[in-house]
Amino acid sequence: MLSKAKIKYIRSLELKKNRKEERAFVAEGPKLVGDLEGHFPCRILVGLPEWLAAHPHFQAQEVVEATPDELSKASLLKTPQEVMAVFELPDGEDGGAPDEELCLALDDVQDPGNLGTIIRLADWFGIRHIYCSLHTVDAFGPKTVQATMGALARVRLHYVPLADWLRRLDGSVPVYGTFLRGENIYGQELSASGVIVMGNEGNGISTEVERLVSRRLYIPSYPPGQETSESLNVAMATAVVCAEFRRRQR
Asked: Taking CA 26 as the corner, what is the angle to CA 22 and CA 31, rounded to the nearest 5 degrees?
């Protein structure tokens, strides 16, 4: 039985301040919960009896059988799943410099779905680290967690004062940024390591961070000169940029 107190506790983790205080976040659905197992300690596993019976070796501090109605009351989703879990947040890291590899930096990305998709893209393209400005949306909010489709298990998120972090790199690696006015990405030399900065959905890369970008890139529309959408969604642009960087390394 899933008690009212536990339902209240799980639902409280929808808020960032509670996730921070409890050092915990919620994941829902068989695939997502299964993907995160072993990567984040699981405090509470809540599932229908048949799901729990089919997964007897799942490692959790507490396992709770629940009815569909109880899962529905605890769920943070519009469509409740047959299993949900409370995982521990990873320990904070100091956001050290990238070690001869490609990484992403996000300058105030605000939409949870965009961030979740970017994390999933990073996983697909073998990018292990994402450095987020302090005002970027929380990666462990329920909407973002669901959108990652389990990629959080393999991609590390670092929340840092982004401009200060870039200054500390002190030119040791190239810093690429995407702009509406820049050099055509398809004609530029792209390195196997460095930082790719992606900006806010409405305002792009901030002025302070822009000053620290050493290579300005532009994704051209097609055909040249024809009227098109004003810009690409930040997650779409991230996909195009990451794909081009990785294509060069084949």
From this structure: 150
Residue 90 exposed, middle or buried by CB count within 10 Å (0-12, 13-18, 19+): middle
Measure the CA–CA gap between 163 and 168, rounded to whole angstroms: 9
Structure-token pair, residue 13? 């983790």
- Lateral strand order in the sheet of 215-218: 156-159, 129-132, 102-106, 194-198, 175-184, 215-218
Q: Give the residue extent of every domain in the chain.
A: 4-88, 102-248
Q: Which CATH superfamily is domain 4-88 in?
A: Ribosomal protein L30/S12 (3.30.1330.30)
Residues 154-193 have pLDDT tens digits of 999 999 999 999 999 988 899 999 998 899 999 999 999 9
Beta partners for residue 103, in sequence order: 195
User: Is this model's pTM higher than 0.70 or not?
Assistant: yes
CA 209 to chain centre: 20
DSSP 52: H
Separation between Cα atoms, residue 132 and residue 129, nearest integer Å: 10
